[in-house]
Inverse folding.
């Protein structure tokens, strides 16, 4: 999971990109980057957060009418500025590119690019694969047309397995965006009549004053020329399987993804969880959300069960999201620094804690311990998702089966493992109903183990080895 933003037709692309990326900073905190185009590419990459990496001096230096930006959360490849996006190649034309997703066959394609296409990959970030596959096929085209461009993206669809929503600028030609045929990761497109912008989440477009937006469709290519002509085509049709974790955890509650607003999806998930717990409502004195993602679901549950809702944990907003931090020790240390209890809301209470999910269990264990130390009589834990049990190869950094607490111990013992008096999960069917209402076209592979594209075991082994060596 990462965040991407791009714009063309802007009076100052840098300012638009900077504003847009700030709104999706939650999607990646390791590195960030902005590339603009005037008569040349103007590039700045940095480690850390957007607000710490760019200042007023960059407004004039990164000038131009078009550009793309990125915030990164590492999946393939280690963290660090050497693997920051956007990335660039000077042939053909000069192309810069950024993506959100995960290339499953990164390592086998990297070998092929070097051996067969003679294109050397000088970083460990997987968008380099997409860029170089695309650039190779574009370099074989005699004429630059929208149809030839679509043909090159089709070659990407043929060769690159995995999830990828892509924004790109081609020097002297225009702005390119496309989404993989399955549509795992979100991509929103909008315009105000002058500017055309793309982002991982709709809230970024609204932040720069673009209220008219829609989703880029799975398998769709959109190309906007430097003169403002829009070309779009669905070049590959497939069953749409958007990642359900976007609504559970990743996205901001004020975003709309694939026509489903995140806030109401989380509210419905809270109501579904209340249905599961309705016969036990007398066992709890108070409902406490684990901030921030779980607030909406906790509010819905407390309303449905007619239980008091209270803020019992205060978040230090200067600590990033622990789930997307690289390395288990960093995640555990961050929990201790991130949350502080309001003891008056917890002391002598039978507390029902609401969270979005449990992955490795260490974060949940630390939170339960914190609440107990604040004086809670009992601590019950409930999550509005199903047990996470299977690796994700499409953009979440959980790619080894033994990382999941649900696979390490019997289900009945997980509550004991995290120190809770009880543990409740939301069944998979209710989770899908809660997010989609009448839709069920989601990727749920990390919950169900059912993958929507064929996976090669050698590619999986390469990914596991990469993640083991990254920490």
């Amino acid at each position: 999971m990462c965040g991407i933003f791009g714009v063309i037709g802007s009076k100052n692309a840098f300012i638009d990109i900077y504003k847009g990326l700030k709104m999706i900073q939650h999607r990646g905190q390791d590195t960030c980057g902005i590339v603009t185009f005037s008569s040349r590419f103007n590039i700045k990459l940095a480690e850390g957060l957007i607000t710490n990496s760019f200042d007023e001096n960059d407004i004039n230096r990164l000038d131009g009418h078009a550009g793309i930006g990125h915030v990164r959360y590492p999946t393939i490849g280690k963290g660090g500025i050497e693997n920051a996006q956007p990335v660039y190649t000077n042939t053909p034309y000069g192309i810069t590119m950024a993506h959100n997703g995960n290339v499953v066959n990164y390592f086998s394609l990297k070998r092929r690019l070097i051996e067969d296409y003679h294109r050397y990959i000088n970083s460990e970030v997987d968008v380099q694969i997409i860029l170089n596959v695309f650039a190779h096929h574009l370099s074989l085209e005699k004429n630059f047309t929208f149809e030839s461009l679509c043909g090159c993206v089709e070659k990407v669809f043929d060769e690159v397995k995995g999830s990828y929503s892509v924004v790109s600028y081609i020097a002297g030609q225009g702005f390119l965006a496309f989404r993989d045929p399955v549509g795992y990761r979100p991509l929103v497109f909008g315009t105000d009549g002058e500017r055309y912008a793309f982002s991982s989440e709709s809230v970024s477009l609204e932040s720069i004053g673009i209220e008219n937006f829609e989703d880029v469709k799975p398998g769709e290519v959109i190309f906007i020329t430097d003169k403002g002509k829009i070309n779009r085509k669905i070049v590959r049709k497939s069953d749409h399987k958007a990642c359900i974790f976007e609504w559970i955890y990743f996205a901001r509650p004020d975003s709309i993804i694939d026509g489903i607003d995140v806030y109401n999806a989380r509210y419905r998930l809270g109501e579904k969880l209340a249905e599961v717990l309705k016969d036990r409502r007398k066992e709890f004195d108070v409902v406490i959300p684990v901030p921030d993602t779980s607030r909406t679901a906790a509010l819905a549950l407390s309303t449905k069960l007619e239980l008091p809702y209270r803020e019992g944990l205060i978040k230090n907003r200067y600590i990033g999201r622990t789930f997307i931090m690289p390395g288990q020790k960093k995640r555990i240390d961050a929990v201790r620094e991130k949350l502080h209890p309001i003891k008056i809301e917890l002391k002598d209470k039978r507390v029902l804690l609401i969270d979005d999910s449990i992955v490795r269990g260490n974060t949940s264990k630390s939170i339960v311990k914190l609440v107990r130390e604040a004086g809670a009589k009992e601590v019950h834990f409930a999550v509005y998702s199903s047990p996470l049990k299977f690796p994700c190869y499409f953009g979440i950094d959980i790619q080894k089966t033994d990382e999941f607490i649900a696979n390490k111990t019997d289900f009945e013992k997980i509550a004991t493992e995290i120190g809770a008096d009880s543990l409740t999960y939301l069944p998979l069917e209710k989770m899908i109903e809660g997010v989609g209402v009448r839709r069920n076209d989601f990727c749920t592979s990390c919950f169900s183990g059912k993958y929507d594209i064929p996976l090669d075991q050698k590619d999986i082994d390469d990914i596991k080895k990469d993640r083991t060596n990254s920490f």
Notes: The two ends are 18 Å apart (CA to CA). The mean pLDDT is 93. The CA atoms of residues 88 and 96 lie 4 Å apart. The chain has two domains: 3-241, 255-451.
